[in-house]
Amino acid sequence: KAGVTQTPRYLIKTRGQQVTLSCSPISGHRSVSWYQQTPGQGLQFLFEYFSETQRNKGNFPGRFSGRQFSNSRSEMNVSTLELGDSALYLCASSLLGTSNQPQHFGDGTRLSIL
Amino acid sequence: DAKTTQPPSMDCAEGRAANLPCNHSTISGNEYVYWYRQIHSQGPQYIIHGLKNNETNEMASLIITEDRKSSTLILPHATLRDTAVYYCIVRVAGTSYGKLTFGQGTILTVHP
Q: Is the peptide bond before A8 cis (omega within 30 degrees of 0)?
């Protein structure tokens, strides 16, 4: 069974640009969550999608957004990039996103802002 | 979310059991304990989770105390590939969909 796939693995952007990251969940999983990992802040929850609807959201500015498609694939977008957005962005999927079901992570997209 | 406390680092000899403790004294009755690990440059890997009873799978065993205020992750025969950051997470039930709150974790170093 294929795991969570994130593309691209590496990305370099400049300040002010925008970026779109993609996540394909494990087959049959309908919940997709996104996380940001930085050396200073650690792993932080961005948002979660289920059935194309955002159900939960972390404390990030509106520049960070996402969406989910009918096949459960998800994208996240960051607009007006800042230097502080340099991070490893991780996607995780689970069957329904409830607390009794484990999430499985991809290996992330490493975003560098110049 | 219930706060967890883990030692910042631990060492273990290859082939020996690694016992990683976690304190979660404010855990509520319907909150699950999860363990993940992260090897450098990879995404976190799910290891095991439990509510009240001890759990075992092909990777590890999870021992939860009767009062649920602490737990121990046991890797029965540690290998060099088990060197990683280990995170103990208490997962809130209810409407906190898809959210895991990561702390600083324990850096486990397995020595030859």
A: yes
pLDDT score recorded for residue B106: 98
- Could you tell me how far CA B25 lies from the centroid of its own chain? 15
> Cα distance from B78 to chain A (closest Cα, Å)?
22
Give dist(CA B33, CA B2) in Å, integer: 10
Tens digits of per-residue pLDDT, A36-83?
Answer: 999 999 999 999 999 999 999 999 999 999 999 999 999 999 999 999
In degrees rounded to 5, what are phi and psi of residue A65?
-140, 165
Query: Average pLDDT of each block of 10 consecutive residues along chain B (112 residues)?
Result: 90 97 92 95 95 95 96 97 97 81 95 96
CA–CA separation, A4 and B29 (whole Å) = 31
A58-to-B25, B39, B60, B85 alpha-carbon distances in Å: 24, 25, 31, 23
Distance of CA A112 to CAs A53, A60, A92, Å?
A: 29, 18, 21
The residue with tokens 């363990």 is: B35
B99 and A106: CB-CB below 8 Å?
Answer: no
CA-CA-CA-CA torsion for B107, B110, B43, A2, nearest 10 degrees?
-150
Q: Give the integer Cα–Cα distance in Å for A101 and A85.
A: 30
Query: Which B residues 12-31 touch A at CB under 8 Å?
Result: 30-31
Taking the Cβ of residue A106 and every Cβ of chain B, the question of whether any pair is shorter than 8 Å is answered with yes
